[in-house]
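Question thread 4412

I'm putting together a teaching handout and wanted feedback from people who do this every day. The idea is simple: show students a protein as raw sequence, then show them the structure tokens that encode its fold, then repeat with a second protein so they can compare. Below is the first pair exactly as I plan to print it.
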Amino acid sequence: MRGLPCDDDAVATGVRLSVVILPDRPWREAAPAWRAAEEMGFGQAWTYDHLTWRSFRDHAWFAMVPTLTAAAAVTSTIRLGPLVASPNFRHPVPFAKELVTLDDVSGGRLTVGIGAGGVGWDSTMLGEEQWSPAERAGRFEEFVELTDLLLRDPAASYEGRWYSANEGRTYPGCVQRPRVPFAVAATGPRGMRLAARYGETWVTTGDRSAPEPLDAPAGASIVARQIGALEEACVAEGRDPSSIRRLVVLGPSLRQGLDSPAAFVDTVRSYEEVGVTDVAVHWPRDDEPYQADRATFEAAVTAELGPRSSA
């Protein structure tokens, strides 16, 4: 298989923490959170990529690409990216151009979270009928394959069932070579194969069908089974399973464990023990979703990250 890109941290011991910052505030209010995430020592800062999302349908919700561009301008070391972009309202050709630009603006700090997307406003806002599960999976495969091709080859053509490119141009290409790293969200067999084939990182939120967020022991048990399926997909693709990072996103269906420093350390350890390399939490908000006390959040995260260095 073709060589995969890697970010600044090889798959190694210890868990890397990242944070998801919702794009729900005007930039003058949001910018301090992105700067603080870097200062606290998070390895990556993500934002969601939706046209709108859940309870924010009639409230402020800003676009991913401008948000990450602005975040790149107020930070210097933390990695940045969408978690996750999807084919719901994107086409690989303009998307690849935006990724090349983001990688340039950030100085090579971009990681691209990609997923199949789901039902809801993103899937119907452009006037389309919702795709069947089979079509969604097929579109996801083509979307990832073509985006990969466009980022590796600055003059690429492609003819698929759902997506095509006629001499797509992405000059000058990515700062990171051969392209920006992909973090592929997947739980099913077809998605796992895509993660094994194209991903520097695999992403899971656990079991989205659970009626309420699961605690760490129950969540880790589910993630362990998913990692087993990922490793099988890696073997089928001729890839060393230890070469792919495993990112668990806490919050949507897995409890974040941010009630206290001890609870958060225990939560992270639970996932680390089953093979997780990366854990993402959500930046605290004043109301739901992800409502949390800022001081408690910082104390819990600092307990895992360690004290901030003077540098």
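The second pair follows. I'd like the answer to focus on this one:
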Amino acid sequence: MATRVIEEQKLFLNGDEIHVLLSGPPDGRAVILLHGMKFQASAWRKLGTLEFLAVRGFRAVAVDLPGFGKSPVGHTPPPEVMRGVIGHFRLERPVLLGPSMGGRVALEFCLSDPGLLGAMVLVGAVGVNENRNRLGEIGIPVLAIWGEADQISPVANGRILSAEITDCRLLVIPGAPHPCYLEHGELFNREVADFSGGLS
């Protein structure tokens, strides 16, 4: 597959159809991209993140969670979807990126299946306080990206992550709203690629 080509695929888990977008070399470090409540996998195509990561040599996998985008409503819970995606595409300790609702999915998956991930990027994640008492268990590198003007998940949540997780860097984008990546796509894509590329 050419580096810049974005491929659509479907996989089936427990009878549920899961739609994904793929880009980049199959042997590149994998980055799984989730989405927020009002978004879907195609947002990463529009933002240029899939292409940006592919050009940098990453294997980018954007997932439509059940009931979002092109994935019909199903019965498979998000952690099982994550396990299915990682297993189906044979992704070795991928970076899992989750904004807002997807951040909660990523955070809780990391806590339930710590050995499957290599790192996380949490973007204005919700569910931080609900999982606060377990954040110290996270032993992988984390990049927390927050909009300074986030009204959904205040930047204080990013500071909690930074304080509670041993290897966590917090990047606050001045004046940015909850979906901070939409207004600052170039900065966002670069930070995600630099973070993922700097992992051992």
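Top answer:
Good format. For the second protein you could add a caption like this: Helices lie at 42-46, 49-55, 78-88, 101-112, 155-164, 180-183, 185-197. The domain at 7-197 is CATH 3.40.50.1820 (Rossmann fold).
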